[in-house]
Amino acid sequence: MSVLDTNKIDGIGISRDGNKLILLISDHLDWSNEYEHLIQLQNKMNSYIGFIDDQQYKEIYPNKVFSLFCIEVHSMYELTANCLKFINVINKQLADRNISIETIVDKFGKP
User: Fold this and answer.
1) How do residues 62-105 score in pLDDT, each as one tens digit?
2) pTM of the model
3) CA angle (35, 43, 87) in 5-degree steps
4) I need a surface site. Which of 58, 79, 90, 111 has the fewest CB within 10 A?
5) How many domains does the chain have?
6) In which domain, by residue range, is 39 found?
7) How does residue 110 score in pLDDT terms, banded at 50, 70 and 90?
8) InterPro entries per the record (predicted)?
9) Could you tell me the CA-to-CA distances from 26 to 13, 34, 62, 96 in Å, in that order?
10) For residue 6, is it within any domain?
């Protein structure tokens, strides 16, 4: 699964304290076509936000109540300045819903 699979959750887990649901986006795309990449990322994030809003996670964790939600974007490549701005805007919009976006650059075996 990857950022291209907008209707699938790439990974899901719970924080150690049990209060936060963590959703993983696996982003293997480079930034050679930044606009298209941002559209793919936006579509994937919108799908995840819908997953949270619709409480679809209750199918996996039926007896859990979460106070926080985090969408972790694991990227194979360093994020562009425009991507970071985009994520900052989204974080501001989602703050009152206790949803945050975090980014992690994973080299996935790259030197």
Assistant:
1) 999 999 999 999 999 999 999 999 999 999 999 999 999 999 99
2) 0.90
3) 65
4) 111
5) 1
6) 11-105
7) low
8) DUF6572
9) 14, 17, 25, 25
10) no
